[in-house]
Amino acid sequence: MIKKILKWTAIVLAGVALVAICTYTYMSVTMKTRMNKLYAFEKETIHIPMDSTSIERGKHLVAIKGCQDCHGSKLEGKVMNDDGAIGRLVAANLTNGKGGLPENYDVSDWVVALRHGVHQNGKPLIFMPSHETTLLSQQDLASLVAYCRQVPDIDNVLPENDLGPVAVVMSYLGKMPLLSVEKIDHNKPMVAVADSTEGPAQGKYLAVSCSGCHRENFKGGEPIAPGFPPVPDITSSGHVGNWTKEQFIATLTSGKTPEGRVLKNEDMPWKMTAQYTRAELSSLYQYLQSIH
Ligand code: HEC
Ligand code: HEC
After folding, report:
1. Residue 136: nearest ligand to its CA?
2. Nearest atom within ligand 2 for CA of residue 261
3. DSSP state of 234
4. pLDDT digit string (tens) for 208-237?
5. Is 118 close to ligand 1, i.e. is its CB under 6 Å away?
6. Is the pTM of this model over 0.85?
7. Ligand 2 centre distance from Cα of residue 63 (Å)
8. How open is the CA angle 57-61-63, to the nearest 5 degrees?
9. Is the CB of residue 93 less than 8 Å from the CB of residue 158?
10. CA nearest to 149, candidates 208, 108, 209
């Protein structure tokens, strides 16, 4: 009798293990296929102004869009993560040094990366938030490219991306923004120039950078990855609804909230928000306050 029970338990466990292995293999193969899919977008070239105002604007955008958090302070690229669970995630060396962008990487390649989320070779970019950069105005996109294309070359040869099991499962379930190319509305035309006067319209344009974590409706939700804190509501129905504009600006420039909580830069990138101008933070405040 006991033998029989043991035998059946073993069969059931083996069955469960087999189903788990098959499910994982299926997810893994699906993700590999999606990551290797070839896309063909029409080559688009935009005029890249090289005057100092545009380059300064590009530098500011690099700071407030968090490009350096992933690509390194000099855009030299870096290994963002390397562990058994998530795997190895590598942000490209964006300079023309060794290990950087190929010599023939031209303006249209920059545009295709930032607007459509694909490499020069037509394959999807992995974990690059192109679904956010695609919403930049043409003027800002041009300034961004102008700045990036003139940073000094840095030799930094990096290893390849190598997804771990948690990243595979989370991406399969849509809980990790792995393939921005799949999220982008590729037919949406670029806005020529964004509203740059202080106010809710500018705030809405800037808040795209907050939506990746605080969600599209800015009402927050579950942690963005295991091990991170839950993401708070930053509309008028959250704490922010009780803050003055000055308190909001102080929080985003110091990482300390009026309630006395200290935000860790790794959870909430306040060192990035600290680089917004006061007018930009004021616009963000006005926009977020207008959401109920
Ligand atoms: C969340 C991290 C993250 C942020 C923020 C980020 N990137 Fe990336 N980016 C990546 C990763 C990772 C890759 C490499 C993708 C790959 O190899 O498939 C990448 C690739 C790129 C590429 C394509 C390089 C190539 O090989 O074709 C460009 C261009 C780029 N990023 C520019 C930018 C700019 C400009 C910004 C700021 C507006 C930015 N990135 C912000 C993670 C990021
Ligand atoms: C990489 C993810 C990420 C991005 C991008 C991000 N946030 Fe956050 N933010 C968080 C997390 C996580 C917390 C909560 C941290 C904690 O609980 O310690 C937070 C907290 C905050 C808080 C404090 C809220 C409270 O109730 O105390 C404010 C305000 C805030 N974020 C505003 C913004 C704004 C504005 C932007 C865009 C300019 C932004 N965040 C971009 C992840 C992010």
Report:
1. 1
2. 27
3. -
4. 999 999 999 999 999 988 889 999 999 999
5. no
6. yes
7. 17
8. 120
9. yes
10. 108
Does 120 contact ligand 1 (Cβ within 6 A)? yes
What distance in angstroms lies between residue 234's CA and the mean position of ligand 1's atoms?
Answer: 26
Structural contact between residues 274 and 265, judged by C-beta atoms closer than 8 angstroms: no
Query: What is 80-140 written as a DSSP string?
Result: EEEETTTEEEEE---SSSTTSS-TT--HHHHHIIIII-B-TTSPBPSS--HHHHTTS-HHH
- Decide if 46 contacts 138 (C-beta within 8 A): yes
Q: Where are the beta strands (DSSP E) in 183-286?
A: none
Token representation of residue 17:
């293990």
- 148: part of which helix (H) or strand (E)? helix 138-148
| Closest Cα to atom 34 of ligand 2 | 210
Instruction: Please state, in angstroms and rounded to a whole number, the distance separating the CA atoms of residues 100 and 93.
Output: 5
The reply to whether ligand 1 has any atom less than 6 angstroms from the CB of 129 is yes
Mean pLDDT over 110-137 rounds to 97
Cβ atoms of 172 and 116 within 8 Å: the answer is no
Sign for the pseudo-dihedral over CA of 46, 50, 54, 58: positive
Query: What's the rounded Cα separation, in Å, for the pair 168 and 74?
Result: 30
Integer Cα distance of 149 and 247 in angstroms: 37
CA distance 101 to 119: 10
DSSP SS3 for 221: strand
